[in-house]
TrEMBL record:
Pfam families: ACOX_C_alpha1, Acyl-CoA_dh_M, Acyl-CoA_ox_N. Coiled coil: none annotated. It comes from the Eukaryota. One of its GO terms (biological process) is lipid homeostasis. This is Uncharacterized protein. Signal peptide: none annotated.
Length: 393
């Protein structure tokens, strides 16, 4: 005979001294956002393709294949259900698979939007939106992470051919870690040192095709592959983080992202009035999403810990009554409650950063760059703070 299920959390929930429904809406940001999240969560949870309970039992190859399967199915469902942009974004969040379009939608597309000219956007964005090309963001190198000014990859202009020559001059100049690069991406926004007539003009972005659109094989002069296993089988092993090297790869001049600066056919470097910090605008977008992601990760961990602490009982019984709930021990509360508060704080500051990023974007469209430095500073600092707290606690 099966034992009847007991809801050990019900008494704890009844003790809440605040409106739980109102808190849910506050967490979501608005009533509409809460309703959208509920609908998308139900759709994902009811679809067996998106199951996650077997992830820890899968090997690296199976994890990656499983993620690709989910990505293809998600794209199909988004189109079938005719989801709005907000709904599709929430849909992807609930799928919760590292690697699901992270670099294509999160960095490749925003980089072209922010740094490409109107003509370049008209050419590349429709292809990206329809997934006719799949892009990644090739900035980080083996020898240089976030130190963009230290990048070694070069893009040397050849005025005779009206082309740039993309080259990896050293081992440490190898692009290293970009998600989607190892196996999936056909194109990349590559950051390299612009060299004209022997003079270094600093870092610029270039759209480079990496693989054939016919058979997906690497194009001549390109060495690309997966970097292999990462720590933690259930986490980023679902993603094909890659390594990339260039051996004098030629691209047309118009594949340099030219909103911030341009190179004429004659080899003249022309700097626009747009601040060079805009080159790193994509990173501002990514950092604000990372802060939100840190909030989600911390809130899930704290939720599990708090619930378990309510269910788990240990010691304290002197007369045969139930033992003391672990949550009632002051030492347990002192560890969990500050993290619970931090999860809410990170959530709300993540919402503020999203507002800040959208405000900066609107200002940029009007050629107002006054708030760009603040966005850089806030997103960089809060990314470091929130991820450190989440990872170490």
């Amino acid at each position: 005979m099966e034992a009847s299920a007991v809801d050990h959390l019900a008494p704890e929930r009844k003790k809440a001294q605040f409106d739980v429904q109102a808190m849910k809406i506050a967490w979501a940001g608005s009533k509409n956002a809460f309703e959208v999240a509920n609908r998308m969560a139900h759709i994902v949870a009811s679809d067996p393709v998106f199951r996650k309970d077997n992830r820890t039992m899968l090997g690296r190859k199976e994890l990656f294949k499983n993620t690709l399967k989910k990505s293809a199915h998600a794209w199909k469902r988004i189109n079938e259900l005719r989801l709005t942009e907000e709904e599709a974004s929430m849909f992807r969040i609930f799928i919760d698979e590292p690697g699901y379009g992270d670099l294509h939608w999160g960095m490749f597309v925003p980089a072209i939007k922010g740094q490409g000219t109107e003509e370049q956007q008209k050419k590349w964005l429709p292809l990206a939106y329809k997934m006719q090309i799949i892009g990644c963001y090739a900035q980080t190198e083996l020898g240089h992470g976030s130190n963009v000014q230290g990048l070694e990859t070069t893009a040397t202009f050849d005025p005779k051919m009206d082309e740039f020559v993309i080259h990896s001059p050293t081992l440490t100049s190898s692009k290293w870690w970009p998600g989607g690069l190892g196996k999936v991406s056909t194109h990349a926004v590559v950051y390299a040192r612009l060299i004209i007539d022997g003079k270094d003009y600093g870092i610029n972005g270039f759209i480079v095709q990496l693989r054939s659109l016919d058979d997906h094989s690497p194009l001549p002069g390109i060495v690309v592959g997966d970097i292999g296993m990462k720590f933690g089988n259930g986490a980023y092993n679902t993603m094909d983080n890659g390594v990339l090297q260039f051996d004098h790869v030629r691209i047309p001049r118009n594949q340099m992202l030219m909103r911030v600066s341009q190179v004429t056919k004659e080899g003249k470097y022309v700097q626009s009035d747009v601040p060079r910090q805009l080159l790193y605008g994509t990173m501002v977008y990514v950092r604000q999403t990372i802060v939100s992601d840190a909030s989600k990760a911390l809130s899930r961990a704290v939720c599990i810990a708090v619930r378990y602490s309510c269910v788990r009982r240990q010691f304290g019984s002197q007369d045969g009554s139930p033992e003391t709930q672990v949550i009632d021990y002051k030492t347990q509360q002192s560890r969990l409650f500050p993290l619970l508060a931090s999860a809410y704080a990170f959530r709300f500051v993540g919402q503020w950063l999203k507002w800040l990023y959208n405000d900066v974007t609107e200002r940029l469209r009007a050629n107002d760059f006054s708030t760009l430095p603040e966005a850089h500073a806030c997103t960089a600092g809060l990314k470091s703070l929130t991820t450190s707290v989440t990872a170490t606690r």
